[in-house]
Design goal:
The protein has two helices and no strands. By secondary structure, it is an all-alpha fold. The longest helix has 30 residues.
Amino acid sequence: MRVLMALFFILASALAPQVAQAQGQAAKEGSKVKAATSYTAEESAAMAAAVREKAEAVERARDVRLRRATSGICIGC
């Protein structure tokens, strides 16, 4: 049991500096945040409209695929 505890402490002390270094690098990378770009009302409305149109097109395509997949062989008389 003492051997296992000694082995654990040796491994923990060997890995502790690496963990601290990795955490320090992550903190440095997190500090490189870009400044937020501000948009005018017109630009914001145009971007929202573009995103809305794209989402509606995706939804229409999904609906077409769903209708095609769920329709049976019979297309009506």
